[in-house]
Amino acid sequence: MVVVTGLSGESYDVDGEPFHAAGARSVQYLCRDPRGHQRLYKLYRNPVTAPDAIEWARQAMLFGRQTVLAATGGSSGAAEAVNWPIDLVQHDAALIGAVLPLIPMDYLQPDGRPRTLDQLWAAPGQTTPYLRAGLAVRLCEIVRVLEERQLIHGDLSAANVLWQPAAPLVHLIDTAGLMPADRAHDRYKDRYDLAALLYRTLLPDSAGPPGAPWQPGGVPADLDPRVRALFDRAFGNGGFGPDARPSAQEWGDTLRTVYLTQAGFGSSTAPLPPTHTSPTGWSAPQPLVTYQGAPQSNSTNTALKVILGVLLVVLVISIGVGAVVLSGDDKTTDGAKGSSITTTAPTTTTTSTTAPSTPGTPGVDKATLNQQGTDKTPFTADALLPSSFTDSKGVVFTRRSSGVKDCIASNMSQNVKTALQANKCVQMVTGTYIDKSDKLMTSLEVFAFPSSTEAEAIYTSLKGQKQTWDVWCPTQGIGASVCQSDLDTLWAATYSSWGRWQYRYLYEAYSLSIDLAVDASLQPSLDAPSRTILQLVGPDNYWKPR
After folding, report:
1. Considering the chain, what percentage of its residues have pLDDT values greater than 90?
2. DSSP per residue over 346-375, as a string?
């Protein structure tokens, strides 16, 4: 048995013999992670050395860890139906392998081989139109997960799409080629490949042999014109260019309307997966839901996506699940004072930050806090976050939930993810504080970097950009209602948001009323905790005299 260590820091016990037959691009081995879960280790025959490719793989791994490791048992969201890499193994400057989840048993044949989509096409009479339509819709949902992350799979082929015969569910494998869409040679290739898969899945009797092109004359005469129009755009009939190819969302919405709401289909006993079921918020704006996050050190937080778009001085909000977008932030470190002013809806907001301070705390050399190698502060909620604090208005807030998570959350905007990755973010600590009257809530994130150089760099690089971060609330009890509120109420809520960098850390704070009130008079009460907490978090909390 061999032990390999991934970029996450976790070690894996790898079997000595390959698992099944060796592939052309890799040799696969069964392995176990530190929690005893069985995984698959793919040892690349040709190590990856290009820095860009390694960084793309790392980004996909971060998505994978957030999705796979945070998923609850029995979760069947579209995001979990991607066989994401959950760790990478690097030797010197080369990427030599990846760790992935095992393919779920429901997608395997009795002999253990994957049940691929081409097997469905080979025997169309053994499946119902309802099942095939459901599989097509589900595939669109999965590809939409990638599109919303601006990722290209690069090989959407029948061999890489697995399916279940008992339910309209599919699973996407072979994610080694994932890359950002803006770096791909053809950023619309996945859309062409998706259309080809849908064509053969929906029209098995008309599609002809594998690889046969779209032939309008060879399809059923009663093919819905909405579906025909999408195929025309996807395959370039009528002069359409690649950029006109329908998105996965457009395909999914159309197919669900055309195929799954007609008489006969809706009465099937086989349940269809609900639209946009990802528990990590990778979906269109919809009512908020709570989900169980990754294990937390004290209690578990729930991410709440609040998209806050600032247009001039008017705040327009739309909601999904998982993050907060702060637009138009002019964050500086020059000590300039600012205010966060919110009036009645529509809200006007100006977000500012305070300058980094020097610790001056006895018992620690402040210079050691600027480097990961010399910073001895434990990276825990108890070390970095106060258990309670009193804001500038004399209101006492108590920490109700907290935890340590991977640095990059799946719902952050791409510019934030890129900045965090480029500056080698290590991890983040989250915390939620609620005041003594149970009326106000402050959410906090603490990000750690290798040095103060990276902390300042990300702070400066994001200045003035629209930014998507995560906001956290307890999964139960006081404050959990924020994650369960209806959209109209949440859209109008008054809030205050502040940020700061210090030493090798970056802090982001967000305060709002738990009842999501829209009231300009609340602004001072929200500014006070979101500004005060930024002066009390970080290593100074641990090293202060006690």
Report:
1. 36
2. SB-----BPPP-----TTS-GGGGGBTTT-
The number of CA neighbours under 13 Å toward the Cβ of 400 is 23
- Reported as a single tens digit per residue, the pLDDT across 512-523 is 999 999 988 999
Query: Residue 383 above 60 pLDDT?
Result: yes
Question: How far apart are the C-alpha atoms of 452 and 502, rounded to whole Å?
Answer: 7
CA distances from 513 to 145, 440, 521, 524 (A): 32, 4, 12, 12
Residue 495 backbone dihedrals phi, psi, to 5 degrees: -150, 170
Order the strands of the 467-469 sheet from edge to edge. 314-319, 306-311, 324-326, 467-469
* pLDDT per position as a tens digit, 451-492: 999 999 998 888 878 777 777 888 888 988 887 777 567 667
DSSP state of 533: G
Contact 523, 537 (CB under 8 A): no
What is the token pair recorded at 520? 């300009």
Residue that the structure tokens 């208005």 belong to: 393
Strand partners, 99: 41, 87
Q: How many helices (H) and strands (E) does the chain have?
A: 12, 22
Tell me the CA distances in angstroms from 190 to 178, 182, 194, one per residue in order: 11, 13, 6
CB 298 within 8 A of CB 381: yes
Computed over every residue of the chain, the mean pLDDT equals 76
User: 377 is written with which tokens?
Assistant: 């502060």
Higher pLDDT, 193 or 358: 193
* Cα-based distances in Å from 306 to 47, 125, 256, 315: 40, 46, 28, 12
Closest CA to 96 of 30, 59, 44: 44
**Phi and psi, residue 500, nearest 5°:** -165, 150
pTM of structure: 0.52
Instruction: Read off the tokens for 250.
Output: 């457009």
Three-state DSSP at 4 gives strand
Closest among 129, 200, 212 to 161, alpha carbons compared: 200
CA angle (541 as vertex; 535, 543 as ends), nearest 5: 130
- Contact assessment for residue 295 and residue 463, using Cβ atoms and an 8 Å cutoff: no
DSSP 451: B
Structure tokens at 360: 């001056």
For residue 318, what pLDDT is reported? 20
Q: To which H or E segment does residue 540 belong?
A: helix 539-543
CA distance 379 to 34: 20
C-alpha–C-alpha distance, residues 396 and 382, integer Å: 18
